[in-house]
């Protein structure tokens, strides 16, 4: 238990839980719409960014996605998707600091 009033992440994020996750090991075929659909079942999404973006002119072997939820408790739920195969790869979902 921490003095932040909730469950701490225990990962060095300080006293306030983060509302942002980083999703790695994404297939190069994944789109931001697919990511939004997947994670919208876990909580309301405030912001979602996929890198490289859908309209990138170059081909990449994998992508990374950042999802910011309105409610930080959605982060803990999202972490349960780690190792879930999405398209052709197992997702890796970790909490991420909210700094730009």
Q: What's the topology here?
A:
Layout: E1 20-27, H1 32-40, E2 45-51, E3 62-69, H2 73-78, E4 85-86, E5 89-90, E6 92-96
Describe this structure in words.
Keywords: RNA-binding. The protein has 100 residues and is an alpha+beta fold. The chain has one domain (20-95): Alpha-Beta Plaits (2-Layer Sandwich), CATH 3.30.70. It is 15% helix and 32% strand. The chain has helices at 32-40, 73-78; strands spanning 20-27, 45-51, 62-69, 85-86, 89-90, 92-96. The strands form two sheets. Strands 2-3-1-6 form a four-stranded antiparallel beta sheet. Strands 4-5 form a two-stranded antiparallel ribbon. Residues 1-10 have low confidence and may be disordered.
In short:
By secondary structure, this protein is an alpha+beta fold.
Numbering strands along the chain, what is their spatial order in the largest sheet? 2-3-1-6
**What structural class do you assign from the helix and strand content?**
alpha+beta
Instruction: Write down the CATH topology.
Output: Alpha-Beta Plaits
Radius of gyration: 14 Å
Q: What are the segments in which pLDDT stays under 50 over at least 5 consecutive residues?
A: 1-10
> Could you give the distance between the termini?
27 Å
The SSE string, one letter per element, is EHEEHEEE
CATH superfamily heading: RRM (RNA recognition motif) domain
Number of domains: 1
- Quick one: CATH class? Alpha Beta
How can the largest sheet be summarized?
Answer: 4 strands, antiparallel
Label the CATH architecture. Answer: 2-Layer Sandwich
